[in-house]
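Researcher: We plan to redesign the surface later, but first we want a full-length starting point. Tokens attached.
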């Protein structure tokens, strides 16, 4: 933040970039029972890491054990990747026109982008075997912003002080989620892991999307009175309009 004569301005911004690779034990998504560490715990000690042919071992012949080989899971998921990006913060500027009258404007924002691309391999070595493979991916985007503007007048006369505030605030946001999956890949090479009919069984393709948007507009005011720090009174009045409410009922006044 900075002050230059009657002007003050500044920002507070945070940037985060995260990358998680599937199959790595410190990936939070692998901590559950179906993850790498969970399968380590559940696997019977008699199940070998590799069978006599050099393939990954499994619990196919072991009673009461249907857990997958954790090393095979780690190998199959080594190219799975989750990406999380976010920019969050606000910028502001104020102007003290006189010792009693000031203006302030503030813009806050939250921008996010999350994505995942993963591969599921066949598990013929499991007690309940699966012989099909597949890929799935999703992409999520979100933008939220809030812009507020206020004018404040503070005046002291003898033992009485007055504080008046007028303001306007607007905020809006939108999000969109896209997902898709397909099975029975003709080529499991990472360069061919795309949801296209020519690369897999088109009858297994599943795609979808969802999202939403919202907006809010507010006008508000506040008046305060203080006499000798003994008698204090205040009044606040807001008028808000929201896109989340039904047409004809989107505005309300709240004292």
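Model: Full-length starting sequence:
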């Amino acid at each position: 933040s900075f002050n230059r004569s009657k002007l003050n301005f500044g920002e507070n911004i945070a940037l985060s970039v995260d990358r998680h690779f599937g199959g790595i034990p410190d990936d939070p998504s692998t901590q559950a029972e179906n993850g790498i560490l969970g399968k380590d715990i559940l696997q019977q000690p008699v199940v070998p890491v590799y069978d006599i042919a050099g393939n990954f071992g499994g619990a196919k012949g072991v009673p009461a054990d249907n857990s997958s080989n954790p090393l095979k899971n780690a190998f199959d998921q080594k190219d799975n990747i989750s990406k999380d990006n976010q920019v969050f913060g606000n910028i502001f500027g104020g102007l003290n026109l006189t010792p009693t009258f000031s203006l302030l404007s503030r813009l806050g924002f939250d921008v996010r982008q999350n994505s995942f691309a993963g591969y599921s391999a066949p598990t013929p070595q499991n007690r309940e075997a699966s012989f099909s493979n597949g890929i799935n991916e999703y992409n999520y985007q979100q933008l939220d912003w809030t812009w507020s503007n206020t004018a404040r007048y503070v005046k002291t006369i003898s033992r009485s002080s007055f504080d008046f505030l007028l303001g306007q605030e607007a905020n809006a946001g939108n999000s969109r989620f896209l997902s898709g999956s397909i099975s029975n890949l003709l080529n499991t090479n990472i360069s061919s892991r795309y949801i296209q009919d020519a690369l897999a069984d088109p009858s297994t393709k599943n795609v979808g999307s969802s999202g939403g948007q919202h907006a809010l507009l507010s006008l508000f005011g506040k008046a305060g009175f203080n006499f000798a720090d003994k008698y204090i009174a205040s009044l606040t009045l807001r008028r808000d309009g929201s896109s989340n409410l039904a047409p004809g009922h989107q505005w309300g006044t709240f004292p």
